[in-house]
Specification:
Helix 5 (about 160-165) packs across helix 6 (about 170-185). The strands form 3 sheets. The chain has a 10-stranded mixed β-sheet with strand order 3-2-1-4-5-8-9-10-11-14, sandwiched between helices. Helices cover about 40% and strands about 20% of the residues. The N and C termini lie far apart (about 75 Å). It has helices spanning about 30-40, 70-80, 100-115, 140-145, 160-165, 170-185, 230-245, 250-275, 295; strands at about 15-25, 45-55, 65, 90-95, 120-125, 130, 130-135, 155, 190-195, 200-205, 215-220, 230, 285, 305. It has about 300 residues and is of the alpha/beta class.
Length: about 300
């Protein structure tokens, strides 16, 4: 007589279980490679779905690999659901390269919320930077009209915030106004991760705790490091997810911790490349993620938020 099959069972996570849909590179740290490890260090169970699998990031002269399509994403979700493995506290998304895949992500949001109505969806609307779009233009309207309304927290850069709000951001006041426009469209938490105003780099954060009241807003002044890094946006959004879940009513505190971690990591990366004899200004630097794990787990609070009155 054949023995009955052994049932597999995933224990619930006490800290939080994150589904992270992002790109993956074999070598280097971008997308899921930049986001999963830090979230695990902060105590989260993280299940990655790799929207692409490339040999390396696309900043190198060449790359090889595969791209996941929308149906393949839904197949993975179907497999999880068939085994009652689709309970998540958080969904995290980063770079998405096509409208069809983004629409499948929206289906995933609906599915996850049907299982856990309290799901927190943290969305980094990766579309471009410094005036340059690096996704198909028709993605912008899908983000603006479909994704922003279902997001819990949004982490655009200055250019992406401008695309989503149709507002040019040339001052701190503009940045704060852009956050309010995004709040009105959906998410209660907005962090514009980098704003360049008169040569100064700022982060502006905004938390609307009550629709009837003005949001609590703050800024963090960020130093300019004379180098170009890859994977920093993906890491920043992961850190904001991790810390804002630990401090749900203090987005400013979460941002202080996230910025402090990131800046320590970037400084270490720059120092290590310089020590090895590389010119930091001649190419993009791969972040020293593993070597900076103490700065992620227990950051020294070196950056303070200044609240707007």
């Amino acid at each position: 007589m054949a023995s009955p099959p052994i049932l597999s069972l995933a224990l619930p996570s006490n800290t939080g279980r994150v589904l992270s849909i992002q790109s993956h590179t074999v070598q280097g740290y971008v997308g899921n490679k930049s986001a999963v490890f830090p979230l695990q260090l902060l105590g989260y169970d993280v299940d990655p779905i790799n929207s692409v699998q490339f040999s390396n990031h696309t900043g190198y002269p060449t790359f090889k690999g595969q791209v996941l399509n929308g149906q393949q994403l839904l197949d993975l979700i179907e497999g999880l659901e068939a085994n009652n493995l689709l309970y998540y506290t958080h969904l995290l998304t980063g770079y998405i390269g096509s409208v069809s895949f983004l629409k499948s992500v929206l289906e995933v949001v609906d599915k996850l919320r049907s299982i856990n109505p309290n799901l927190t969806y943290v969305c980094d609307p990766v579309m471009g930077d410094e005036g340059k779009l690096y996704v198909p233009e028709d993605l912008v309207s899908v983000y603006r009209e479909k994704v922003v309304p279902v997001a819990s927290m949004l982490t655009p850069n200055q250019f992406e915030a401008e695309l989503l709000t149709k507002l040019r951001i040339g001052s701190e006041t503009d940045g704060r106004k852009a956050c309010k426009i995004l709040h009105a469209a959906g998410p209660s938490k907005v962090v514009i991760t980098s704003i360049n105003i008169d040569g100064n780099l700022l982060l502006i954060g905004s938390h609307q705790k009550d629709k009837e009241q003005a949001p609590e807003q703050f800024k963090i002044v960020i130093p300019r490091i004379p180098a170009y890094f890859t994977g920093t946006g993906d890491l920043m959004t992961a850190l904001l997810l991790g810390w804002s879940n630990k401090y749900p009513d203090n987005l400013d505190k979460a941002a202080e911790l996230a910025v402090s971690s990131l800046q320590a990591l970037l400084q270490r990366t720059l120092n290590d490349y310089t020590s090895a004899g590389f010119d930091s200004k001649s190419s993009s630097l791969e972040i020293r993620l593993i070597q900076s794990q103490d700065d992620i787990r227990q950051p020294k609070l070196t950056f303070k938020a200044h609240k707007y009155s």
